[in-house]
Amino acid sequence: MHLPDYHGGSIVNLMASIQQGLGGEPHIYPQHRLLTTDQIGQYQQVLLWVIDGMGLNYLRSQPKASHLNANLLGGMTSVYPPTTASAVTSFLSGLAPQQHGLTGWHIFFAELGAILAILPGRPRYGGVPLSQAGIDLSALLNVKPLTDSIPGSTACLVPDKIAKSDFSQYFLGSSKLLTHSSLDELQQNMVERMKRGEERYLFAYWPELDTLGHHHGIWSDSAEQHLLALDHCFSEVVRQCHETGTLVIVCADHGQIDSHPQRRLSLDDHPLLADCLAMPLSGEPRSAYCYLRPDKSECFDQYVTDHLAQQAENYRSDELIEQGWFGIGEPNPQLKRRIGDRVLLMREDYTFNDWLLQEHRYQLVGVHGGLSEDELLVPLIVVEP
Q1: Are residues 146 and 215 in the same domain?
Q2: pLDDT for 237-281, tens place per residue?
Q3: How many domains does the chain have?
Q4: pTM assigned to the model
Q5: Same domain as 119, residue 216
Q6: How far apart are CA 211 and CA 221, in angstroms?
Q7: What is the domain-level CATH number for residue 282?
Q8: Each residue of 95-126: pLDDT tens digit?
Q9: Could you give the angle at the alpha carbon of 376 between the alpha carbons of 374 and 378, nearest 5°?
């Protein structure tokens, strides 16, 4: 098991370097030890391209992705849990989950009395987006977009299918929005903004590698072929950066591992454990947050020891805050409420799911959210013009 390095070697520290290097407000996290504030401050424009699901170990194992590997400055950690909802929020806010409080795909918001899927912005049980329900996301999150702290113009380049979500619209802040529906269109948008040089900071996001990993496995042929397409796109962006003077940074929110069918556990098969729970699981299938009934803590712990010790590690949730898993510094006032009473951190490639009545029982091949190297470590790719 590995933990995030919030003291200079994580994606949060990268954002501290970017924010301060571009003239933004002082940051509560140290700058990144591999890419400092002073280095970033030399450039008039910075492009950060986040490729969802591109783990460090996975990239290094793919020599055909020669351009990405040739410009690999080193590795760094994601945040805990290493998953899109938590890590992309760190890219967009500059903060760790300790401060932004978004702790996984499914999060219990005590303020609303409901478990939400925060990225699509809906309750887990379904329904309309939060904004249509009259909920002010700014009051719910109480975290400001990083781009609002950077002097000058900024732009966010995101897929059109997520551009209008409450989450995307909130973290867009004052940035210009540019959407794309294909990798070619993203490449065109990145190159065009670099050539124009109007924005000080460009944030680009591409989710398809992660999607292919979930559906087919990160080690599948389809994922490998897509990585090569990303490598070609990167080579074209690099060619342009030498002409525009743009500092290009490429990284990821997390990596992935493949989970075998026999390692995908269901709460349905553990009714005595389910009886200990006060509400459905939240968090991630690799890091499940468990809210316990008041008189069931001993029963829960004993059941995990007797029946799941080979598959999961059982932690008191508040201990993980104390040990710095979610970040350093003053925690979000809602953090403790959003991680339950216990955290089941799955071993090896195990996952643990439960299902609401209306939910389709899908199975993901590629998974993340645990603390293996393959999930936690991400590349830091840097091209200086």
Answers
A1: yes
A2: 999 888 899 999 999 999 999 999 999 999 999 999 999 999 999
A3: 2
A4: 0.97
A5: yes
A6: 13
A7: 3.30.1360.180
A8: 999 999 999 999 999 999 999 999 999 999 99
A9: 85
